[in-house]
Amino acid sequence: MTVKKFIGLLFLVFANISVYSQSYWTRVTEIEGGLDLLTIQFTSAQTGYACGEYSNTSRGAILRTTNGGYNWQTTRFNQFEVTDLNFINDYTGYFTGWAGGTNINNYIYKTTNAGINWFCTDSIPTSFFKIKFYDENIGMIASKYNTYHFTTDGGYNWSIQYNGNWYEPSKILCFDMDVWIVLDNGIGINKTTNRGVTWTRMNFDSIGIQCAAIDFLNDTTAYSYSFNKKVFKSNNSGNNWTQIGTVSNNYTQYYNDIVFLNSKTGYLNYYAGVFKTTNGGYNWFNSVADSTTRFNALFFLNPDTGFVAGWKGLIYRTTTGGEKYNPPPIITPDNFKLYQNYPNPFNPVTTIQFDVPRSSLVKISVFDVSGKQMGTLVNEQFQAGTYSTQWNASGYSSGIYFYTLITNSYTETKKMLMVK
Fold it and tell me: What is the DSSP string of 305-374?
């Protein structure tokens, strides 16, 4: 080999290392054509699992790592797709196997030794989609066409009921043994407080389009986003929603998951990448992108270590909080300011922007011409920055309204016109 060729090879090697390391996300699985990973979960810093299906076949797979996601072993199943998995502790976990059809037996598998061995606990003729356990005994499966199942004996026996409010469930959340939420991307958010005896369709009319994903930070604070790239927040357990941000990319669908680690840091994945926020969902920046795949699921062990999984069996890992580059600097306003709403006139939704120069408790309320308060849009602590909120006046008549920003040292009011 000539010196010139050797130097050229060294340049390519170090160039590749540099570019790859700057992404702060490392691909930790090899491409496996046809494998679509749907769920990923870690039970400890070292042990994690992912599951998925092979396109256009009744075949599925479970992936397992015991070294923090650096290497993965694949177990394949030729008789069914693996639609979801859920571990309740380091050793006990479940997955659902769908053989394809409502009249064909589908399967619940269980492990009690951290995924080394799996055994079938039951088979039911229904279309399994999502599984979630509250503890070692109580669990739920959400199926197609309003169907769901509960177990109280660790998955060995399941009751079946048909009074859900969904078509194809995309996520199950559990708050205690009786309170459960099921999300359907096309229909809405459904909640039970009596372990499935009755279900209530939660109000997310303000989102205005199908809810693509939802995550609860705690019992009261929730985040969601829609297929038209808007991010929403609820401060009352999902009963009402306010738009707080938007996400900019070239894809119009296939948002699949949203995860908030605390009140400031959150992630959402879209068709070919992941976005991150560091100010509570008001602003988002691109964290990782791979136009060759579609990302389906996110999981973070802590604010630094996380994983994203998707098409072609691909899993990416970050140990730096997923920051491909430093977030754009947040420009700190010099003073409090309330901007004119837009659009104005409006029907029925308008956006209100405001500046906060320092950490402050901010309240924004809407009043009619008589001074009667019509609602409170914002009432929380904000760090310095520029923010926006929305008012949906669909339940009010046309006319002039006023909105007021109040802090402990500043008050400002502006007028707006709603025309139906």
Answer: -EEEEEGGG-EEEESSTT-SSPPPPPPPPSS-EEPPPBSSSBSSEEEEEEEESSSEEEEEEEEETT--EE
Residue-wise pLDDT tens digits, 14-56:
333 333 333 578 888 877 878 999 999 999 888 999 999 998 7
User: What span, in angstroms and rounded, lies between the C-alpha atoms of 308 and 318?
Assistant: 9
- Among candidate residues 358, 349, 366, 350, the one with its CA nearest the CA of residue 405: 366
> What pTM was estimated for this model as a whole?
0.72
How many helices (H) and strands (E) the chain has is answered by: 1, 35
- Kindly state the tokens that stand for 97: 């196997």
C-alpha to C-alpha distance for 135 and 36, rounded to whole angstroms? 28
Please give the Cα distance from 205 to 52 (Å, whole number). 32
pLDDT, residue 207, reads: 62
Strand, coil or helix: what is 42? strand
The answer to whether 207 and 241 have CB atoms below 8 angstroms apart is yes
Question: Are 263 and 229 contacting, i.e. CB atoms less than 8 angstroms apart?
Answer: no
Contacts of 7 (CB under 8 A, 6+ apart): none
322 contacts 306 by C-beta, under 8 angstroms: yes
